[in-house]
């Protein structure tokens, strides 16, 4: 009979037995019992097979292994993609190398009944391997076994199946009954036996189990138990067919899998008899390579060819198409988006024709979210028909594109007054101009003394550029306190520095974690008193401009390079900045200013050490208020803003140790040191010398930090080297 279901094939041959033969010798009663057992086992196998069929419907189809004549498993691309998807997300392990044991019953010319068990790579099926008894002088006897099977169908023979037969000798032989050429394989087969031993009484079930154990050793593609009644007793022979020797490997459709990795996975098996267990381990390692990298790839088929060549087929799901689908923020239903799909697609590193990687897809999701115009982003892979490829659907939920906002803050430049440092702000912003992710921000900040009005337009990625170059255009009118350099007026008067600035900057990443900026900035700057009148000298008669006029004009060419580590707070950072004044007109200032800053964080247990260093130098004719000010919240704590010194050069170093306290709160112990390197007197008018600034100093103290949406909120208390104490409050990390 033949039973088919998908790619599983079960076959059994009819058995012909002459009824008179059962009365000729008492030993043949065992054969009758054995035939009944065989009928029962076949029936049980069919019932088990039907149950397995139902299970197979809900399981993924694994690869299939055959000998000499490969049997193809017609796995559809949709099933493979489904298998890979579940493998990637860890729901199941769809590809496995397991046993398939199909029982083939035949009558040989000599009348010996064989039950042959073959091994492949597929879903495990329950089957039987029955024990048959024969006598040499009965080889020409036959009966109508088909009629007997039909007569015995439905009867219970479990008692006969458990009856024991005394075995005098157990041998392992070839299919032709000869000794195996390789004794190591014979030893492997004998070592796999558990129940079958010489001078032991065995049941059919125990023989079955040992047949399975031989197959499960991995060295044999078939095993046939044959029992022969001899003069010395019943001899049980396991006729085995060893696998071929591993002579070569062919891997197909592996476009991203490194050939070196494949060679390493199979290296130990070259020149040896193919072992299915070792093949299983190799395939598991290959699937693991894909899974570790989030790639949609899997071993889909494996077979052996003549000459011991193993052919490995890999299914890698390439990206067929990428589409954008916008979802409503409230209902989650598809809707029309404001953003151009091309603006989103060009942000993705996943391209058509690539093998889809879930890790790369996650990075693409993070990149789209970093644009600031999406509230939620997800990628859904779907099979692209039966092509073996995958279609990607990116679901995007857009944020409101713009609106007004108001807020407040604190300026570190204000050190006295009843409303010291308070700032109010009002702004309008649009995050997605023209649906191209372009930004427009108009803001106004107003404090007790300082104020800033700013218009900024940014295109994060210039259209037509393949280097991810961004462009920023800025116009700003600001008034900031001048006490950083020209503070501590004896008459308690104050002055402010007014600046009108306009410029354009271009930025792009040029290496991983490295970015560069180039720009051109024009600045019109001068000093004013409390009434807003222009002034050119302070109380000490120190000049406030380099040109001697009420204002200085400068055209700056700017170059900046920044390295950022992981981007987390306390990660490694380095920045280098150079500005060159271009004297296009004779009255425009000409100078060169270089600054650099670095930061390094080290985790030790729950604590974290943070070291930072910054410095700079100016050469040429520059405005005195542009000198480097030392001291204050973001410099040397324990001093007022700019109280340590102001010079053409400076160096400031800091060391901090922070430790968690509770929830978002952490404590910190710190120490700072800064110096103008003796350059204070070289600033026009020597404003630091006129105010008796020391030129160098240090501070130390402790504080608390609280994480907030605005960044770390810092409240610190520090002592300087004059033993004077001072509170400092800041928002965000130190510069």
From TrEMBL:
**Compartments (UniProt record):** Plastid, Chloroplast outer membrane
Q: Which PROSITE patterns match?
A: POTRA
Q: Which UniProt keywords apply?
A: Chloroplast, Membrane, Plastid, Plastid outer membrane
Q: Which InterPro entries match?
A: Bac_surfAg_D15, D15-like, POTRA
**Any transmembrane segments, and where?**
none
Q: What is its main location?
A: plastid
One GO biological process this protein is involved in is:
embryo development ending in seed dormancy
One GO cellular-component annotation of the UniProt record comes to:
chloroplast outer membrane
- Report which superkingdom the organism of origin falls in: Eukaryota
Domain POTRA positions: 317-399
* One Pfam family from the record: Omp85
Q: Which family does it belong to?
A: Belongs to the OEP80 (TC 1.B.33.2) family.
> PANTHER family under this entry?
OUTER ENVELOPE PROTEIN 80, CHLOROPLASTIC, SORTING AND ASSEMBLY MACHINERY SAMM50 PROTEIN FAMILY MEMBER
Descriptive protein name: Outer envelope protein 80, chloroplastic
- Originating species: Capsella rubella
């Amino acid at each position: 009979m033949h039973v088919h279901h998908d790619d599983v094939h079960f076959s059994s041959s009819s058995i012909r037995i002459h009824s008179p033969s059962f009365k000729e010798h008492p030993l043949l009663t065992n054969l009758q019992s054995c035939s009944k057992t065989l009928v029962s086992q076949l029936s049980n196998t069919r019932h088990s097979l039907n149950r397995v069929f139902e299970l197979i419907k809900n399981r993924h189809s694994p690869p299939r292994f055959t000998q000499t004549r490969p049997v193809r498993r017609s796995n559809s691309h949709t099933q493979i993609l489904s298998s890979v998807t579940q493998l990637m997300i860890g729901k199941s392990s769809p590809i496995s190398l397991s046993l398939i044991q199909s029982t083939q019953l035949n009558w040989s010319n000599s009348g010996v009944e064989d039950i042959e068990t073959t091994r492949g790579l597929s879903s495990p099926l329950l089957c039987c391997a029955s024990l048959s008894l024969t006598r040499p002088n009965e080889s020409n006897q036959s009966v109508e076994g088909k009629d007997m099977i039909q007569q015995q169908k439905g009867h219970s023979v479990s008692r006969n199946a458990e009856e024991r037969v005394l075995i005098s000798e157990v041998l392992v032989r070839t299919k032709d009954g000869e000794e195996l050429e390789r004794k190591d394989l014979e030893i492997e087969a004998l070592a796999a036996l558990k129940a079958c031993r010489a001078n032991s009484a065995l049941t059919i079930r125990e023989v079955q189990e040992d047949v399975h154990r031989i197959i499960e050793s991995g060295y044999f593609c078939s095993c046939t138990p044959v029992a022969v009644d001899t003069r010395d007793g019943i001899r049980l022979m396991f006729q085995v067919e060893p696998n071929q020797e591993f002579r070569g490997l062919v891997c197909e459709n592996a476009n991203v899998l490194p050939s070196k990795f494949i060679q390493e996975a199979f290296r130990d098996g070259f020149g040896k008899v193919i072992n299915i267990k070792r093949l299983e381990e190799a395939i598991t390692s290959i699937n693991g390579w894909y899974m570790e990298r989030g790639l949609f790839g899997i071993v889909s088929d494996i077979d052996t060819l003549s000459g011991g060549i193993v052919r490995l087929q890999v299914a890698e799901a390439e990206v067929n198409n990428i589409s954008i689908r916008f979802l409503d923020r409230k209902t989650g239903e598809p809707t029309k988006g404001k953003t151009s799909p091309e603006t989103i697609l060009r942000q993705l590193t996943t391209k058509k024709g690539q093998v889809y990687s879930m890790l790369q897809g996650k990075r693409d999701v993070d990149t789209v979210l970093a644009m600031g115009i999406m509230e939620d982003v997800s990628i859904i892979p779907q099979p692209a028909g039966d092509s073996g490829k995958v279609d990607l659907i990116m679901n995007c939920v857009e944020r409101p594109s713009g609106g007004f906002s108001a807020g407040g803050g604190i300026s570190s430049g204000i050190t006295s007054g009843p409303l010291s440092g308070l700032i109010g702000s009002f702004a309008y912003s649009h995050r997605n101009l023209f649906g191209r992710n372009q930004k427009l921000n108009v803001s106004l900040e107003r404090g007790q003394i300082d104020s800033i009005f700013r218009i900024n337009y940014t295109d994060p990625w210039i259209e037509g550029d393949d280097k991810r170059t961004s462009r920023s255009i800025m116009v700003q009118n600001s008034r900031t306190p001048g006490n950083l350099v020209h503070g501590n007026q004896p008459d308690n008067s104050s002055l402010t520095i007014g600046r009108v600035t306009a410029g354009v900057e271009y930025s792009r990443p040029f290496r991983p974690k490295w970015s560069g900026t180039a720009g051109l900035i024009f600045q019109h700057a001068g000093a004013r008193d409390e009434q807003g009148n222009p002034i050119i000298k302070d109380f000490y008669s120190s000049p406030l401009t380099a040109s001697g006029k009420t204002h200085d004009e400068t055209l700056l060419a700017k170059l900046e390079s920044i390295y950022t580590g992981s981007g987390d707070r306390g990660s490694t950072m380095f920045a280098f900045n150079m500005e060159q004044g271009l004297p296009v007109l004779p009255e425009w200032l000409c100078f060169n200013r270089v600054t650099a800053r670095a930061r390094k964080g080290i985790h030790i247990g729950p604590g974290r050490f943070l070291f930072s260093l910054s410095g700079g130098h100016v050469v040429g004719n520059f405005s005195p208020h542009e000198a480097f000010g030392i001291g204050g919240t973001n410099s040397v704590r324990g001093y007022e803003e700019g109280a340590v010194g102001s010079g053409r050069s400076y160096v400031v170093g800091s060391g901090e140790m922070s430790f968690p306290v509770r929830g978002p709160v952490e404590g910190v112990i710190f120490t700072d040191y800064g110096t103008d390197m003796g350059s204070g007197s070289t600033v026009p008018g020597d404003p630091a010398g006129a105010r008796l600034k020391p030129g160098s100093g240090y501070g130390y103290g402790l504080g608390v930090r609280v994480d907030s949406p605005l960044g770390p909120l810092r409240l610190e208390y520090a002592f300087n080297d004059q033993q004077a104490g001072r509170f400092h409050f800041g928002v965000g990390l130190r510069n």
